Amino acid sequence: MSTALINGIQLSYQETGDGPLVLLIAGSGNPGRVWRTYQVPALVGAGFRVATFDNRGIAPSTQSSEGITLADLVADTAGLIEHLGAPAHVVGTSLGALVAQELALAHPDLVDRAVLLATAGRPHPMLLAITAGRAALHDEGIRLPARYSAAAEAALHLSPRTLADPGRARQWLDMFEFAASTATTPGVRAQLGIDHSPDRLADYARITRPGLVIGFSDDQLAPPPYCREVAAAIPGAHYVEIDGCGHLGHLERPEEVNRVIADFLTGG
């Protein structure tokens, strides 16, 4: 693990492989290592140098507990790409996809191709409600029982098809329960305060970089119609929908997601 001083803060990152640079941008509250089980090996195998990093707010990167904006995350990502050697392909999911979209708009010179998973160009009521609810739980000092929290997270983030398999459901519940056993950090709370309210679809018509939007059929936080809107807004962007997975589709159906990403980044 390496660190870089970017925009006055420390960003923790890790690189693997050789070839054109691909930067993976994680979603809200998630460390960069969530990509390393499935996406990093697949992309390294496809001939890329792959970098993951912990966004501002995620330790050991600077937590910035006083507040974080989407513009902060975009500037951090731009600075990291310059540090690693621009340009880069960027792949983001959820909040990471919003960062990638805004980066392609503001800094097209730093972006080769952009892959946007589980994204939106305008706020979805469920996403706003869940984010506000999580922030309120932290602010009021409420800790839900880990087992209940795990069940709620699984129902919210996964496909009913996954949960219908008792073995897979148990594995996911165990993972969510482990995550729920740790308190929300000040940095994660700062990420929860990011403003998701602007409608950016009209602005995305000015994105000039090649784009791929991947939607997940059972996603409740970034439903496929919202993903398709982003693809329609970005000139020349392609849309692919993966069946049988929810908001965490890159972890539920990693082989198919990885194949679609690699095909696009290699010009397929």
Strand content: 15-25%
Strand line-up in the sheet with most strands: 1-2-4-3-5-6-7-8
The helical percent reads 40-55%
Poorly predicted ranges (pLDDT <50, ≥5 residues)? none
The biggest beta sheet reads:
8 strands, mixed
Q: Give the CA-CA distance, first to last residue.
A: 32 Å
Shape: globular
Helix-strand topology string: EEEHEHEHEHHHHHEHEHH
**Total number of β-strand segments?**
8
Mean of the pLDDT scores? 96
State the helix count. Answer: 11
Oligomer: single chain
C-alpha Rg (nearest Å): 17 Å
* Structural class label: alpha/beta
Secondary-structure blueprint of this entry?
Layout: E1 2-6, E2 9-16, E3 21-25, H1 39-45, E4 49-54, H2 70-84, E5 88-93, H3 95-106, E6 111-117, H4 125-139, H5 146-157, H6 160-163, H7 166-180, H8 186-192, E7 211-216, H9 224-233, E8 238-242, H10 249-252, H11 254-265
Parallel strand pairs: 3-4, 3-5, 5-6, 6-7, 7-8
Antiparallel strand pairs: 1-2, 2-4
